[in-house]
From TrEMBL:
Its main location: membrane. InterPro entries: CCR1-9-like, GPCR_Rhodpsn, GPCR_Rhodpsn_7TM. Receptor for RNL3/relaxin-3. Binding of the ligand inhibit cAMP accumulation. The chain crosses the membrane at residues 36-59, 71-91, 111-132, 153-174, 205-227, 247-268, 288-310. GO terms for molecular function: C-C chemokine binding; C-C chemokine receptor activity. Keywords: Cell membrane, Disulfide bond, G-protein coupled receptor, Glycoprotein, Membrane, Receptor, Transducer, Transmembrane, Transmembrane helix. One of its GO terms (cellular component) is external side of plasma membrane. Residues 52-308 form the G-protein coupled receptors family 1 profile domain. This is Relaxin-3 receptor 1. It is found in: Cell membrane. PANTHER family: CELL ADHESION MOLECULE (PTHR10489), RELAXIN FAMILY PEPTIDE RECEPTOR 3.3A1-RELATED (PTHR10489:SF935). One of its GO terms (biological process) is cell chemotaxis.
Amino acid sequence: MFNHSRSSNRSLLDKDRFSSLEDIDVTADGSPVLRIIISSVYSVVCAVGLVGNLLVFLLMKVRQGRKRSTVNFFIVNLAVTDFQFVLTLPFWAVDTALDFSWPFGDAMCRIVLSVTVMNMYASVFFLTAMSATRYWSVASGLRKQSPRVSCSVRWVSALLWVCATLATAPTAVFSTVTNVAGEKLCLLKFPDGQHWLALYHLQKILVAFVMPMFIVSLCYLLLLRFISRRVMNNNRPKRTSRVTRSVTILVLSFFLCWMPNHAITFWGVLVKLNVVYWDKTYYMVHTYVFPVTVCLAHTNSCLNPVLYCLMRREFRKMLKELFWRMSSPTTGVTGLASACCVPDLGFKSCLGCLVMDWCPVLGVSPPLLALRPVLPGNALAGCDPAQDKLL
């Protein structure tokens, strides 16, 4: 995804030493403490990302029978990309801890680097698609999704995966393990000099940041303008405030996670094109600041589940229900997943079984509760299992 090619313990004079390597991307790191910190952050991001994205899969599975939408379909694809991406972080954590010396061989270098880059593109593409879909769905006043829309969403998702794969093609072709100063580095090596590497990074900046950032910002600005106009007519300022806050957080998180890395990468492009010169400032930034920006960009993979799921009230409610059901002591026969709560009786009855839960209304503990008969059919006729309540 980023410039994962680094060598160890180089001074500023090493520029002459690596002048023959104009076709590869070489950066440096001279701080063992920084490497340990980055490796630790990678491990934490990997753990949080795995749990967060698995939780998204679980919530989407629970929600599948209740409501399907275009945004939710994109959220699932986004979770897939982020889940695949965090699986590569242990490799980069080991690589960083070993002073950026790649121990896994040429084949794994090509696979891990390609998977990392492909999921970077796919993640950004699906975030952009979600932004456009949100504006389109709100502005068009869609309430129900037609089969034709569902089919279109699948085709759009497939197209985004194809675009991400095509954008990753140079990485898959030119990634390799190369000996630099006696160390094996996993890096990109182009055959015709540093200008190809500069064009590669320029493509990444434009396709994976500038264009998506423009589209995301435009869609959310249009969304805010649309909602503001509707609220002015309906006198609902609280809704505008809530949406404005959510949109601001989403755009800022995307911008702050990616901008520092792409800014330094663009600086490197200017150096490779001889627009600016390699100097001490560039060396220090590339040595000590750039690895931190890589780490910051990696955190986006574990932030996405929080920002795009847990910020939505419906998903927070589903998560609370899930944890409540897992932690509540129950007895009885297992039945259907949905049940109707009868508050005045203090128990839940589902279609064909009865599950007794502790209820403050009854004032008794779970062992004292006994199974009650299933409610008659006419009582269940006014029950909404999806909402777990009587109508």
